[in-house]
Design goal:
31% of the residues lie in helices and 25% in strands. By secondary structure, the protein is of the alpha+beta class. The strands form 2 sheets. Strands 1-2-3-4 form a 4-stranded antiparallel β-sheet, with no helix packed on it. It has a two-stranded antiparallel sheet with strand order 5-6. α2 runs parallel beside α3. The chain is elongated, with a radius of gyration of 22 Å.
């Protein structure tokens, strides 16, 4: 009867250890928590992970508020992570940015503009590298 005893001990250990529950939940979800410094407790992380899993298994995709943006041509706009950037229709020297809100990533909705010294021919942005490349005319 040793396997039953090991199973009870394993269950007790998992039930009484939030960090272990979080590690198992991350493994089950196929994600890696690479953020070592965070203001969230393990309980908060478990709740966020459960919300993330629920949001991605929900067929209706109602996990974020709806944000409408003006239509732009692909050459005049770019997506990178939670950021949408589009050249202003009235000025080729202005780029408008919109950060989409995310409860799961703790991001608020933000908008800002960047006024360039000259007209821009094209631009690309990379949110994860904090990078904006602009080709001037």
């Amino acid at each position: 009867m040793v396997p039953l005893q090991v199973s009870r001990l394993s269950k007790w250990l998992v039930d009484n250890s939030r960090p272990l529950q979080y590690k198992i939940a991350c493994f089950h979800a196929g994600v890696v928590d690479c953020c070592t410094t965070t203001p969230y407790t393990t309980k908060d992380k478990l709740e966020l992970l459960a919300a993330w899993r629920e949001a991605h298994t929900n067929v209706e995709l109602t996990w974020c508020p709806e944000v409408r943006m003006p239509r732009a041509t692909p050459s005049d706009s770019a997506f990178s992570g939670p950021i949408y950037a589009a050249r202003d229709v009235n000025s080729k020297a202005t780029i408008r940015f919109q950060q989409f809100p995310s409860d799961l990533r703790d991001l608020e909705a933000k908008s800002w503009t960047l006024d360039l010294a000259t007209n821009c021919e094209a631009f690309k942005c990379d949110y994860y590298q904090d990078l904006l490349v602009v080709l001037e005319v």
